[in-house]
Amino acid sequence: MSEKRSAILPQLTKYCNETLILSALCEEKKHGYDLALHIESKSESYFSFHHGTLYPILHKLEKEGLIRGSWKREGPKRRRKYYSLTPRGRKDLNARAAEWQTFCAKITMMTKEAS
Fold first, then answer.
1. Is pLDDT of 2 > 50?
2. CA end-to-end span of the chain, whole Å?
3. How many angstroms separate the CA atoms of 87 and 67, rounded?
4. Domain coordinates of the chain in residue numbers?
5. pLDDT in tens, 54-90
6. Architecture of the domain spanning 15-114
7. pLDDT digits (tens, 9 = 90+) for 22-61
8. What pTM was computed for the model?
């Protein structure tokens, strides 16, 4: 796949968004906006999240016990919810990463001649 965004990218990424979020939380806590910026920066703008996509996924992952959210006051009136990976989330991320690596290797193997 080229570095340029393709028409099929939205269909492909909807299946990996949870894994991207869990991966981004692997090292440290992040609030939603910082999380979106981290993913965009680390992927060289290949992946990006909008509020309408990001927050429902965060709530789902939190409900499933894969991440934990905690509120932190920033300034006199502002509060942000910071998310962190739970032990269960780390275990799930490891399983997802292994599956993605296998999946990508097999897709690459099957499409190698088409390139």
1. no
2. 9
3. 9
4. 15-114
5. 999 999 999 999 999 999 988 888 899 999 999 999 9
6. Orthogonal Bundle (1.10)
7. 999 999 999 999 999 999 999 999 888 887 889 999 999 9
8. 0.84
Residue 1: pLDDT over 50: no
CB 7 within 8 A of CB 78: no
Rounded Cα distance, 79 and 73, in Å: 4
Q: Which of 56, 34, 37, 55 is nearest to 47 (CA)?
A: 37
- Beta strands in the chain, from DSSP E residues, in sequence order: 30-31, 67-74, 78-85
Two tokens, residue 69: 């959210």
CA–CA dist 115, 109 (Å, integer): 11
- Hey, which residues does 73 pair with through a beta bridge? 79
Pairing, β 78-85 against β 30-31? antiparallel
